[in-house]
Design a protein that fits this description.
Radius of gyration of chain B: 21 Å
Number of strands of chain B: 11
Shape of chain B: globular
Order of helices and strands of chain B: HHEEEHEEEHEEEEHEHHH
Helix content of chain B: 25-40%
Strand content of chain A: 15-25%
Oligomer: heterodimer
Structural class of chain A: alpha/beta
Order of helices and strands of chain A: EEHEEEEEHEEHEEHEH
Distance between the termini of chain A: 52 Å
Largest sheet of chain B: 8 strands, mixed
Strand order of the largest sheet of chain B: 1-4-5-6-3-8-11-9
Structural class of chain B: alpha/beta
Number of strands of chain A: 12
Helix content of chain A: 10-25%
Largest sheet of chain A: 8 strands, mixed
Number of helices of chain B: 8
Strand order of the largest sheet of chain A: 1-3-6-7-2-8-12-9
Strand content of chain B: 15-25%
Number of helices of chain A: 5
Largest interface: A-B, 54 and 47 residues
Chain lengths: ~270, ~280
């Protein structure tokens, strides 16, 4: 459930009516979550609440977007909500994996919050196992999108203009050509479940995903967030090349030491 | 990657292993098995201060001190708890793959248990020693059943726990770090002085200590967590003594025992842990 940060008398609960909800799927390489970190850090978004749930593994730490001594001691938990009212943007960041058997309850709680808070649409950043691509998917762009029927009507044209590639549906039984085509997002965590539920509940949802593998997924996060930016224009590109705005994304301080501590000097 | 026997295994993805399982529809048999496992893994909190006929009024609590893990629990046993000033008021019964708690209150420091004590002279002071491992699917239940029994107005929470120094992220190598050492995390509402440096980015805390602190942050309860980074995983007097700076804190200062008694109890831990650690006669 959404719990606002400020609950003192006089301050109203944040209003997300008409906002775009941006959120990650916990998926291969954690690419969606890394991309969301870049968005929150670059746009200097304000934390407005927590998504208190029993579906995610608990974790706490100090402010992952700290820029100075003064703002480094604010506690952060595993699922938090940030907002930028000037852009009508609300972001949910998820920082830990799902507890077993809790995918479905989480999706239900999330979609019910989307409906009650009257968000206009949801954009889900995700990823899928690169090794599961078929021969055609191995060539060309590793980025894909999906739109629920309600959002297709609104922005389908824009995707065509941007020359984006829709996620292919695959045969239910590979090798047998006359079976139904289904959506298959291996390594995508709750992506498929959230998308199919949104389709059936009439929620406007877009999924933006990248094919990738586990490893150093920082470059994948940059590619995904630039892909998002082509559509939502969250940051304006300074250079002439409108597709490359990598240098303008601010890496959060919590990305330090991702691959371990310093080395013992006695090693050399 | 190959295991010892040469078969190839899939490297676990951070995305979660069984998404396919989750997406599949449950058969009635699956549902039955899942329900049975959930029932077996239920967390039961038995409060002994509630007698049969009483309505379930919440426990008024001003200070709640939680020690998670054997060393943190042993710190409370050595420096705070005794059988004269404190009485047992609750016990947690749970089972998971790592441990089963005993419902007896006569426990050894090396047992798995979760007990609640109340200060007889001030019944609003509650203390918990939780040396059993509470699994990730049980942590929320533990929180709701423990905090659900308390009146949270005016409550302040102090959490003590330990974790391996190898988990500590720092620019230097962990070889040069002097352990054990303390680090703290506090909620927004906690205004008092902390007894050690705050936990630096990008370090995080997990498991039950994180669950308790998250609960306090969300529900605006002043709380502080003291995490002791240590390189000893078993019961160890050096790790236990690393918590000593906390005895100067506002919460624990008035509760601390006589130091000679503490030394006696610590010596007892030394012999207990030696017996368990030594596999050679």
């Amino acid at each position: 459930m959404f719990v606002p940060c400020d609950r003192g008398g006089g301050s109203a609960a944040p209003d997300f009516k008409g906002f775009t909800l941006l959120m990650p799927a916990v998926s291969v390489g954690n690419v969606g979550q890394l991309a969301i970190d870049l968005v929150i850090s670059t746009l200097d978004m304000t934390k407005v609440g927590y998504f208190y749930t029993d579906c995610l593994v608990p974790m706490v730490g100090n402010n992952p977007y700290a820029t100075a001594e003064e703002n480094s001691t604010e506690l952060s938990i595993n699922a938090e909500v940030y907002s930028l009212p000037s852009e009508k943007l609300v972001v949910l960041q998820i920082r830990s994996p799902f507890i077993k058997n809790k995918y479905r309850p989480f999706c239900e709680t999330l979609l019910s919050w989307v409906k009650s808070s009257k968000c206009a649409r949801v954009v889900l950043l995700s990823s899928s196992h690169a090794y599961q691509r078929d021969d055609e998917q191995l060539l060309g762009t590793p980025l894909r999108y999906l739109l629920t029927p309600d959002l297709e009507k609104a922005v389908g044209g824009r995707m065509k203009e941007l020359n984006w590639k829709e996620m292919e549906r695959v045969a239910a039984y590979p090798g047998i050509s006359d079976t139904d085509k289904i959506l298959h997002i291996p390594g995508g965590g709750i992506t498929k479940l959230l998308f199919t539920e949104s389709c059936s509940e009439g929620i406007q949802m877009a999924v933006l995903l990248k094919f990738c593998s586990e490893g150093d997924n920082i470059p994948d996060a940059f590619v995904l967030v630039n892909y998002l930016n082509e559509w939502l224009q969250l940051i304006k590109s300074e250079s002439n090349n409108s597709t490359d705005s990598s240098s303008q994304w601010k890496i959060p301080s919590s990305w330090r030491l991702l691959f371990g501590n310093g080395l013992p000097p006695a090693l050399f | 990657m190959a295991t010892f026997f040469g078969e190839v295994v899939v490297a676990p993805s951070r995305a979660g292993l069984d998404e396919e399982e989750e997406a599949r529809e449950e058969t009635p048999e699956d549902r039955e098995i899942r329900r049975e496992i959930e029932k077996k893994r239920e967390v039961d909190v038995l409060w002994t201060w509630r007698s049969g006929g009483c309505a379930e009024e919440p426990l008024v609590c001003s200070r709640f001190i939680v020690a998670i893990g054997r060393n943190a629990a042993a710190f409370l046993s050595s420096f705070i708890l005794d059988s004269v000033c404190w009485e047992v008021v609750g016990v947690v019964k749970l089972w998971n793959e790592w441990c089963r708690t005993s419902s007896t209150t006569n426990v050894l420091p090396t047992d798995s248990f979760c007990l609640f004590y109340r200060l007889i002279s001030d019944p609003t002071v509650l203390l918990c020693q939780c040396s059993c491992y509470v699994a990730e699917d049980q942590q929320f239940q533990w929180l709701e059943k423990v905090f659900g029994s308390m009146q949270k107005k005016g409550l302040q929470v102090t959490i003590l726990s330990t974790c391996p120094v190898a988990d500590y992220k720092t620019q230097e190598s962990t070889l040069t770090l002097v352990s054990p050492f303390l680090r703290a995390l506090k909620t927004k509402e906690f205004q008092e002085q902390v007894c050690c440096p705050l936990l630096e980015q990008p370090n995080i805390v997990r498991d039950l200590p994180a669950a308790v602190l998250s609960y306090c942050q969300v529900w605006q309860i002043p709380a502080v967590l003291y995490q002791c980074y240590t390189d000893v995983i078993k019961l160890d007097t050096v790790t236990i003594e690393a918590f000593k700076p906390l005895l100067s804190s506002k919460v624990l200062k008035s509760l601390a025992k006589d130091s000679s008694e503490s030394t006696k109890i610590l010596k007892k831990f030394l012999t207990t842990s030696d017996t368990h650690n030594n596999i050679y006669i």
